[in-house]
Specification:
Layout (H helix, E strand, L loop, with lengths): L6 E11 L12 E12 L2 E7 H8 L4 E12 L1 E7 L13 H13 L5 H17 L2 E7 L4 H14 L2 E5 L1 E2 L12 H15 L5 E7 L7 H13 L4 E6 L3 H10 L6 H7 L7 E5 L5 H10 L2 E4 L1 H6 L7 H6 L3 E4 L11 H13 L7 H8 L1 H6 L17 E4 L5 H7 L5 H11 L5 E6 L2 E5 L5
Parallel strand pairs: 1-4, 5-6, 6-7, 7-9, 8-9, 9-10, 10-11, 11-12, 12-13
Antiparallel strand pairs: 1-2, 2-3, 4-14, 14-15, 15-16
Helix pairs in contact: 3-4, 4-5, 5-6, 12-13, 12-16, 13-16, 15-16
The structure holds guanine (GUN) and zinc ion (ZN).
Length: 440
């Protein structure tokens, strides 16, 4: 795959975002090389540019993977996903609170068994790669074993991944509860063992305010202060009944987000999934602290939760990452997720541009996780995580593709019509970790 100097070239139509194209759809945000080369050395981006120029500098013996006719884009970043919910995706008929009781909690109950955790973690990471996702922020279950299994599997693949054990000490079945003390201790042990190992990071993960006592949130806040470069990862303001329940459980709070804020959890590297029922003050607070909103369109539609207001979040200065939220989300595919994000924005009068859709699937996630200096674009020196996409993967896509003129049109058709069938190969640090052609 690489020559003696560790050089490897990937040739194709290279497209990546240099920054957020924004509402004005800034043309300079997208860098495109129609016949381009991504040159990789030691697992990092050495250079990106027109094939002719880059190949002229490297000598004829460099190995070249020829992906002409295909798109080479940065790997997708999924900022909120539950790996233990893999086996209960597509569970019928309920909205959030009943869905948790009926399907989620019984499924998560199985993850105290290390064999279940290891088997599911392996499948889950393969499924991410099959869908072109190269980085994710992942929830485990309450069991530390669940996170142990996931980190071990991700480490074996060389994947950049963040995860954490769920903390919950009330309003959940007995078999899924920790305590303020055990949750604190188990999380701290996992941080000490895994945070910063290879490409892994720890996320302190209270499930959501209703399942943590005030004593537990207090301890979680202490952890978040003691380990400021870990993530904080939770849910907020997803569903109307949930929001009403939080105001009963925490009558002193100004808002749902305020509960977390009072425990020091609204900060840099804090990722709040959903953020549908926030008010302007909440959004301003997120913006001023650097906390991030996780936009989960397939989940929000599937559970009938509501519509995330992307345009308002951004204009209020909130950072936003895109997420599948499997198993409430209905697909591992960030391509499908982008398509639903587009529709959710359309329902609110905003048409997200093709460049912005690519941004949401890639660089926005890297920015959300504060790793844009490592992944999310092909900046020189970045880790070479990327995906090769076939814009003609199905007969309909091929037919539509024949009628596209610009790269923006191609991207838009791919995001609207595509899914895992478009993912030809997925690469981590310059090594191919999934190839469609290897499938049985
Ligand atoms: N809120 C608390 N737990 C969950 C969960 O597992 N999924 C979703 N979508 N929302 C939650
Ligand atoms: Zn979730």
């Amino acid at each position: 795959m690489s020559d003696a100097q560790g050089l490897h070239a990937v040739r194709g139509r290279i497209v990546h975002c240099l920054h957020d194209p924004g509402e004005g759809d800034d043309r300079n945000a997208l860098e495109v090389f129609d016949d381009g080369v991504l040159l990789i050395e030691g697992g990092r981006v050495a250079r990106v540019g027109p094939a002719e120029d880059v190949l002229a500098t490297v000598g004829a013996e460099v190995s070249v993977t020829d992906c002409r006719g295909q798109l080479v884009v940065p790997g997708f970043v999924d900022v909120h996903i539950h790996y233990p919910q893999t086996d209960m995706i597509a569970s019928y008929g309920e909205q959030l609170l009943a869905w948790l009781e009926r399907y989620t909690f019984p499924t998560e109950g199985r993850f105290g068994d290390a064999a279940v955790a290891a088997d599911t973690a392996g499948f889950f990471l393969d499924e991410l790669l099959r869908n072109g996702t190269t980085s994710a922020l992942v929830l485990g279950t309450v069991h530390p074993e669940s996170v142990e299994a996931l980190f071990q599997a991700a480490r074996g693949l060389g994947m950049r991944l963040a995860a954490g054990k769920v903390l919950m000490d009330r309003n959940a079945p007995e078999y899924l509860r920790d305590t303020a003390e055990s949750g604190y201790r188990d999380s701290r042990e996992l941080i000490e063992r895994w945070h910063g190992v290879d490409r892994l990071s720890y996320a302190i993960t209270p499930r959501f305010a209703p399942t943590s006592s005030e004593a537990q949130l207090e301890r979680v806040g202490e952890l978040a202060t003691a380990y400021p470069d870990t993530y904080v990862h939770t849910h907020v303001a997803e569903n109307r009944a949930e929001v009403a329940w939080v105001s009963e459980l925490f009558p002193w709070s100004r808002s749902y987000l305020d509960v977390y804020d009072c425990y020091g959890l609204v900060r840099e590297r804090a990722l709040y999934a959903h953020c549908i029922y926030l008010d302007e003050r909440d959004r301003r607070r997120m913006a001023e602290t650097g906390a991030v909103a996780g936009f989960c369109p397939t989940s929000n539609l599937f559970l009938g939760s509501g519509l995330f207001d992307y345009a308002t979040a951004r204009s209020d200065g909130v950072k936003v990452g895109l997420a599948t939220d499997v198993g409430a989300g209905t697909s591992f595919s960030m391509i499908r997720t982008v398509a639903e994000a587009y529709k959710v924005a359309q329902l609110q009068g905003t048409a997200l541009s093709p460049a912005r859709l690519l941004y949401l699937a890639t660089l926005a996630g890297a920015e959300a996780l504060a790793v844009a200096d490592r992944i999310g674009s092909f900046r020189e020196g970045n880790e070479a995580d990327f995906v090769v996409l076939d814009p003609t993967a199905t007969p309909l896509m091929a037919r539509r593709h024949a009628h596209t003129e610009s790269v923006e049109e191609q991207l838009f058709a791919l995001f609207t019509l595509g899914d895992d069938r478009c993912v030809k190969s997925t690469w981590l640090q310059g090594a191919c970790r999934y190839s469609q052609s290897d499938r049985a």
